[in-house]
Amino acid sequence: MSNAASASESIKIIDGWYGEPSEHHAAGVLSILKLLHLDEATLIAAHNIARTHGKESLTKLIGDESARLLIGYRGLRQAQAKLVRNDGGLSISGQEEMLRKMLLAFGDDLRVVLIYLASRLQTLRWITQEKIEMPTAWAQEILNIDASLANRLGIWQMKWEMEDLAFRVLSPETYRDIAKMLDGKRIERESFINLIVSKLQEELNAARIEGEVQGRPKHIYSIWKKMQGKSLDFANLYDVRAFRVLVDDVKSCYAILGIVHNVWQPVPREFDDYIARPKPNGYQSLHTVVMDEHGTAFEIQVRTNEMHQQAEYGLAAHWRYKEGAYVGTATPLKNNPMR
What we know:
This protein is an alpha+beta fold.
């Protein structure tokens, strides 16, 4: 790795990164992929993402595996650049073609697509940070292709952030309105969350079930979609008050569901068993909406720790590359200079 880290030639600012310095972009991509627990070859490729060497010299510089990943990433970037219209987005046929190329790359090596998605997310972060005005077509493309693919791969952390940042570009006023409403009720909401978390933890202790209770993060785009889809105003949206319980086994999940429905009143038609019937991307969890004695509705999700890893990191949580095939779990490698 020392030769890769020391070599500084052939690095430049890439136009598709909208003025972001290459070193800054590489550091951001590397940080995103570390959170997904990717292997050393992927992290080395990310660290060298701005290099313009040819295949032979790149292989000598960072090794065959990392070079193949980086060249695959370049192929996706070049394909995307060719399909961009004047307004910064892709036509419907262009979106289909881009998705086809990404899925082909996924079939060859998932890590190529993960590098590409991490690069797109880092660009979104940069645009937001620098307040760069972008065409709405560009942001819509992020939602239609990149966030959608992150969703298919089950990488919820990446999906949610892409959706929120792209929505901020698409509908800045609506985004600000929802953010203000969240902030305006923050103290009241935090007090309610602390009360429910304490009550849930108390019930778990009484039942002698080991588990962790969390207040669930709120995502502005998903709040907006719920408001549109169910014709609810902000005050009646239970997603704003949401909780998660993590346990060790499936038996405990259903035991906690029984406890929750005994303590609070279940809301009709607001229960989903994604453990018995997982979503197509593999997502598993119990979802239920209940009401307290004041009629305040809130959502509780219950899942195992293993299901939570799948929910947060998707396929990347289960695969690491070894001898040409994805096997086992993506665990950090020992003596990894990129960590």
